[in-house]
């Protein structure tokens, strides 16, 4: 019998080390529900080792432990392309913002750029955990990637992280010549909470009218605070990695109020933004048993209804973070599709 062990890379990039609680299942309890039949056949072998190697529940008492554990699994950056840490002056009364600029610098012609935000449920992670994966993207597309070390909740509530991310976006646009960037080909991208931040940033960029975006790539994005609070999901959605309880904690931390409240700060919850017109062309990818699948599919539908070109990919039996298990055939097919979508979106 083959024994599967999650690599440090898979744990770090997927956030499993911190996201997936000691109880791998949402309601009902693990003793009464087996999610394995709902998992894609290529990924079923991962279920048992995931449960054996994952950490504690996510709440105020375990937050510090989860943050430390997530960073402990960070992989080393690649030798190339090169990267540099840059400290950006904050906008108005905001503090400085740390970013990591990858593959930046003038070449024979300007290149596209991606402003990237890491995942972590709005409360976990640092930008440097994404350095290796973003180096891979930058090398594959010969583009510049700037990944943002935005401030985390609950210490900083909305719109703190949005302003950090906007600072990075505006810097890329303003310093395009120095960075070797084509101003007409700037995209935003993120996974999970990073996808939520990317969606918020695209909305803010549209509303502020300073930086045109050519594309947004949202990978299983965290878009709706009502999921798991006022809107409950069947037990196979969110059974692995990120469940309803974690979602309530992440959103409540970001918003400074209970998730699912009647009103939220304008621009804080992409799924609650009434007008989605004039947003950039969009890619949304999500697994069919991810807690976020319904909200992501609905966001794609609303973008289409608003006249926004949107490509939606739903992977049957894909759980949250499925795409980090790169040896699985279904993941290889998805990643090939995703990179092709990026190439098209960035016009490379």
Helix and strand layout, with pairings?
Blueprint: H1 8-14, H2 16-19, H3 47-53, H4 63-72, E1 83-88, E2 97-102, E3 111-117, H5 131-141, E4 144-149, H6 160-174, H7 176-179, E5 181-191, H8 193-208, E6 215-219, H9 244-255, E7 282-287, H10 293-305, E8 310-315, H11 329-346
Parallel strand pairs: 3-4, 3-5, 5-6, 6-7, 7-8
Antiparallel strand pairs: 1-2, 2-4
Helix pairs in contact: 6-8
What is the terminal separation in angstroms?
44 Å
Broad shape: globular
Query: What's the CATH H-level superfamily name of the largest domain?
Result: Alpha/Beta hydrolase fold, catalytic domain
Low-confidence stretches: 1-5, 17-31
The Cα radius of gyration reads 19 Å
Strand count: 8
Order of helices and strands: HHHHEEEHEHHEHEHEHEH
The CATH topology of the largest domain, please? Rossmann fold
Q: Which structural class fits the helix and strand makeup?
A: alpha/beta
The name of the CATH architecture of the largest domain is: 3-Layer(aba) Sandwich
Helix content: 25-40%
Largest sheet: 8 strands, mixed
Q: What is the count of helical runs?
A: 11
What's the CATH C level of the largest domain? Alpha Beta
Strand order of the largest sheet: 1-2-4-3-5-6-7-8
Number of domains: 2
């Amino acid at each position: 019998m083959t024994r599967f062990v999650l690599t440090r890379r898979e744990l770090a990039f997927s956030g499993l080390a911190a996201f997936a609680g000691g109880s791998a299942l949402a309601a009902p309890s693990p003793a009464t529900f087996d999610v394995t039949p709902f998992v894609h056949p290529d990924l079923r072998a991962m279920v048992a080792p995931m449960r054996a190697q994952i950490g504690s529940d996510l709440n105020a008492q375990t937050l510090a432990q989860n943050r430390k554990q997530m960073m402990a699994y960070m992989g080393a950056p690649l030798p190339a392309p090169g990267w540099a840490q840059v400290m950006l002056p904050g906008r108005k009364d905001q503090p400085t913002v740390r970013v990591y600029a990858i593959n930046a610098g003038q070449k024979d012609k300007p290149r596209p750029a991606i402003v990237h935000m890491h995942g972590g449920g709005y409360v976990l992670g640092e930008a440097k955990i994404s350095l290796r994966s973003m180096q891979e993207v930058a090398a594959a597309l010969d583009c510049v990637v700037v990944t943002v070390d935005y401030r985390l909740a609950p210490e900083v509530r909305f719109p703190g992280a949005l302003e950090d991310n906007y600072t990075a976006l505006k810097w890329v646009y303003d310093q395009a010549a120095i960075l070797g960037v084509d101003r007409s080909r700037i995209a935003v991208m993120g996974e999970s909470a990073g996808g939520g931040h990317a969606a918020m940033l695209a909305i803010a960029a549209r509303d502020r009218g300073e930086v045109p975006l050519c594309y947004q790539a949202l990978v299983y994005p965290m878009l709706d605070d009502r999921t798991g609070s006022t809107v409950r999901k069947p037990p196979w959605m969110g059974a692995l990695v990120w469940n309803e309880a974690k979602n309530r904690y992440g959103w409540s931390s970001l918003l400074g109020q209970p998730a699912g409240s009647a009103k939220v700060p304008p621009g804080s919850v992409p799924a609650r933004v009434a007008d989605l017109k004039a947003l950039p062309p969009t890619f949304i990818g999500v697994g069919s048993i991810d807690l976020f699948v319904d909200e992501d599919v609905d966001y794609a539908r609303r973008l289409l209804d608003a006249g926004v070109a949107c490509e939606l990919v739903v992977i049957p039996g894909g759980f949250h973070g499925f795409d980090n298990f790169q040896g699985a055939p279904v993941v290889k097919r998805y990643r090939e599709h995703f990179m092709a979508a990026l190439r098209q979106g960035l016009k490379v």
